[in-house]
Amino acid sequence: MKKALVVIPTYNERENVQEIIDGIQAQKTPWVIHVLVVDSNSPDGTGALLDELSRVKTGLWVYHQSAKLGLGRAYLDGFEYMAKNMPETYDAVVTMDADFSHHPRYLPQMLDKLDQFDLVVGSRYVAGGRLENWPRHRKWVSRAANFYATTLTGVPLKDLTAGFHCFRREALRRVLKFKTMIAAEGYAFLIELKFLSFKEGFRIAEIPIVFSDRTKGASKISKRVIFESALIPWKCLYDRFIYTVRAKRSRKPA
């Protein structure tokens, strides 16, 4: 039986975290789904609640960071913890938020598509996807940011800034061999993951999702994260040049 691990970073998500875990574990799918929550030393007691839940729930793992180090570091710490400390061998790894903007109901479809693809992205901007409960100006900003990132990186996806990913485990392992190239600490980490996946020639699919604004808790996006998200696509543009040079050198006769 195939097994999947859902990795969820949390910071002050006490109101949402038990409900999202229950929603994930309730999905009807042939896959066995486990959950790893990476908590960034949440002051609201999210970590303590997770420890309580892990004692009574099977398939739930918790990793505690010492401080809030950014979304990218949370995911990398989670991937490293999975590789070094977890007894299970997983066939797929999912990244998603804890606030139900990425709804667990899409997990069965994403996992099923791994028979044909290396990476499946939950997309707001393919046919059938949409943003829900967002004011018009936020929708415009999101669209503009996505167009900006796509243009600079050259990655032909409709929703490059999405954070709902489902990787074949082996594909993720290949991407993480290049983790020294990853510079982002915040949400731009998600752009870099897809950029590296595209440059490695992965088969990537997008499925439509309805992306809803959170109803509990507060957004964690800071000015620093926004600034970083504006810079990282330029770094990817530079990395495109590096990949091109390497490709030309590899084609030269010995």
Summarize this entry quickly:
This protein is an alpha/beta fold and 254 residues long. The protein is built from 8 helices and 9 strands.
Please give a structural write-up.
Strand 1 (3-10), helix 1 (17-25) and strand 2 form a beta-alpha-beta unit. With 254 residues, the protein is α/β, with parallel strands linked by helices. The longest helix is centred in the last third of the chain and has 29 residues, at 223-251. The model has no long low-confidence stretch (mean pLDDT 90). The protein contains eight helices and nine strands. The chain has a single domain (3-251), classed as Spore Coat Polysaccharide Biosynthesis Protein SpsA, Chain A (Alpha-Beta Complex), CATH 3.90.550.10. Helix 7 (188-199) runs parallel beside helix 8 (223-251). It is 43% helix and 18% strand. It has helices at residues 17-25, 46-56, 71-85, 107-112, 136-153, 169-176, 188-199, 223-251; strands at 3-10, 32-39, 60-64, 92-95, 119-123, 130-132, 165-168, 204-208, 210-212.
SSE blueprint:
Blueprint: E1 3-10, H1 17-25, E2 32-39, H2 46-56, E3 60-64, H3 71-85, E4 92-95, H4 107-112, E5 119-123, E6 130-132, H5 136-153, E7 165-168, H6 169-176, H7 188-199, E8 204-208, E9 210-212, H8 223-251
Parallel strand pairs: 1-2, 1-4, 2-3, 5-8, 6-9
Antiparallel strand pairs: 4-7, 5-7
Helix pairs in contact: 5-8, 7-8
